[in-house]
Amino acid sequence: MNGRVLLVDDEQHITRNLEKVIPWSMLGLEVTGTAKNGVEALELLRAEPADLILCDIRMPVMDGLELVRQIRERGMACDVIMLSGYQDFSYTRSAIQYGVKDYILKPIPYDELTGVIARVMSEQRNKRQQIKEEQRKLDRMIDLANEKILYDVLMDYTDITPDNWLMAGQEQLLGEPQYTLLVLDIDAGSADARDWREWPDKERKIWNFAVCNVLRETLRLAGLHHAVIQMRDGEWCVLIRGQKAADSGDGSPEARELQVNQWAEMLLASVRKNAKLQLHAGIYDKMTAMNKLSSAYKTVQRGMQLSTESVPIAVYGSEFAGGFDPGRTLWDIAERLIGAMKRGDAAGVDAEQRRLAEQLHKAGGSAEGRLKPMLHFLALHLMRELKEADLLQREQEEAMWRKMDLHFGVKDLFAAIRQASSEGVARSTDKRKHSERQLTDAKQFMDRHLFRDLSVEEAATYVGLSTSHFSLLFKQTYGETFIEYITRQRMEKAKALLLETSKSVALIAKEVGYAERRYFTKVFMKYAGQNPTDYRMAVQGGGSLLTVPEESEDEH
């Protein structure tokens, strides 16, 4: 697409010569209009914006300098080259003041003017490319921040409401169906996963990271707006935002199911090719609002764990709930059992073990055929959660896997669950004081690194905890999530810097960990109710400190 040029001069032979002599096509430009004065030029610009204006200074009705002033006041994005037969320095100074790109004296040296136009348009293209690249970085930064928030949302650690300042202008995502949710998981109990189970923890972490990258790159190449969140070792939640069912416009449930299945097949094939491992996928049957993601994730996770069918892709949703009655009861017991273990609540663990025993007693002789597969899956789920919470030592994990591989009966499965949960709660109780010290160390580490992009994975690794266990402990101990704490600390530090220093907003944004000023401004406005410049003026009583000139707050 060619750039648009407007020629403005009261001498028609000048505009005719410019049209004919300058090699516009070679420069990637076309002349879309000519005007005899500034008034005519403004009318043409209102009808069709221009990328470049060549403009005389001395004209009747409205001269060139007044035209440029009007253009700048109205925020029209175009470059201007002034043409003049006058060498008066006052004209040049005024032209520079209004941001004119160059000043060419008449008679016009057309070769020189052609070079100036080429330079100006090259600068313009480079600037557009830079803006595009900055926007891409900003979008990725927002995506990464959203992934941190979305982890807490999926785990139900945070309340998402329009008043939550972490949303930073994304409130519209709360009530509308925005996400397609998929869960990708390794079948930990299968023979294919035996090699994976034997990998050391460090190798597993590298593999988990690699799979995240494979999933993100596959979705990026497919042009899908996405988030990929690792939920635990060998399990990922993929959220695809704002995609309708099929490009054909067919919004039927069948068309959507076909589309989402294609996405799942694409992701599984990519992981199989690039990470050399077989995963299976669970899909939530409806598009889901952000504030419903936690229940949707739990539905899919439960369905995948309790399913006795070995299929690569399965769909789960509320209408399938009736088919999970026995399994749902066991699942609820298992979830409460895991929660009690993580809290170090020995009485709670004993109570859930008794409930589990009662369910098995009620099932009687049917337990072997009907509940044994579900109990087996619950045992695997329990082991993975214990491992994620760092409540299962390596030798215990290996011993449990050996037992699981034997596929023994209900009585032995129940004994294994009971043993694992009892050891887990004992270990949790022993670790409670140690965990308090770990979290204190983590907070100190986080406070020292507010100036850079800090992930929950990095903070958890620093104190030797898994991401999910660290997130749970942090929320239980401090009453807020990792990202809520980090963002609040950054905003409070930013407020102090705005009050106590004359540093620019852009510099303060970098000092508190935001590479992009626009994103920082969004979050600050949501947190403080004002953009940073207005906040500074308000707290300084109109500017008691000598402040540096600020860029315009065009983000709000």
Automatic annotation (TrEMBL):
Name of the molecule in the record: Response regulator
Annotated Pfam families: HTH_18, Response_reg
Location of the Response regulatory domain: 4-121
Residues that bear 4-aspartylphosphate: D56
HTH araC/xylS-type domain span: 440-538
Organism expressing this protein natively: Paenibacillus lignilyticus
Gene3D superfamilies tied to this protein: 3.40.50.2300, Homeodomain-like
Keyword terms, alphabetized: Coiled coil, DNA-binding, Phosphoprotein, Transcription, Transcription regulation
InterPro entries: CheY-like_superfamily, Homeodomain-like_sf, HTH_AraC, Sig_transdc_resp-reg_receiver
Coiled coil: 117-148
